[in-house]
Specification:
Length: 203
């Protein structure tokens, strides 16, 4: 099927907003529906790369319900089973790594400068980010709360954090210029304008 001009324009607009300088890392998040929800938020705010690290559970083979899993078609998903290898790659691509963890040295999400090259790490549904993974990070952040229960669902916490990053990056003008390197941009353009992506049936 030939791609319509409207479809090509939409893909071009999306690619021009994709952000090279921000990523999400999910550590041992076992519910694929939570991962799928995170993927939808990543796509919504222009994050292209998502890291899924499973050191205690098997690698995921699918990402939740059909209603939300289509977001995976538009992201570059990097799955790891070795923490050191995962964070070595993160260090090559990002200047700082922050985990979501309630600790004495944690800073508020709203005090973080999210306009730099940064990876945000979110832990699993029960125990959060592990001590092992916290040792790889440059610091911790928390989402301010005033309720009795001082925790949020992983997908909600991620959405709150990414939309604060979206706000900061919008103010800084990051969405007004192309962020992806030319080779990455061209590769995604070819991938998105060929095959099932061309029809628009999955959106």
């Amino acid at each position: 099927m030939d791609m319509t001009p409207e479809r090509r324009d939409r893909i071009l607009r999306v690619l021009n907003k994709r952000q090279q300088s921000l990523t999400v890392v999910l550590e041992n998040v076992f519910d694929p529906h939570n991962i799928s929800a995170v993927m939808r938020t990543c796509d919504a705010v222009g994050i292209q790369d998502l890291y899924v690290l499973n050191t205690r559970i098997p690698p995921h083979k699918k990402w939740g319900a059909k209603s939300s899993s289509s977001a995976a078609d538009w992201l570059s998903i990097h799955q790891f089973t070795d923490a050191a290898a995962c964070f070595a790659e993160l260090r090559r691509n990002y200047d700082s790594i922050f985990t979501t963890h309630l600790a004495g040295d944690s800073v508020s999400l709203y005090d973080l400068d999210l306009t730099g090259r940064m990876a945000l790490v979110f832990g699993n549904e029960h125990s959060g980010v592990s001590e092992e993974i916290r040792r790889f990070s440059d610091g911790n952040f928390i989402i301010p709360q005033v309720g009795m229960i001082r925790s949020l669902n992983i997908s909600v916490a991620c959405a709150v954090s990414l939309y604060e990053a979206f706000r900061q990056k919008s103010v800084a003008g990051h969405y007004g210029q192309r962020s992806l390197p030319e080779a990455t941009f061209n590769g995604l353009w070819r991938h998105w304008t060929e095959g099932p992506h061309a029809s628009g049936d999955e959106c």
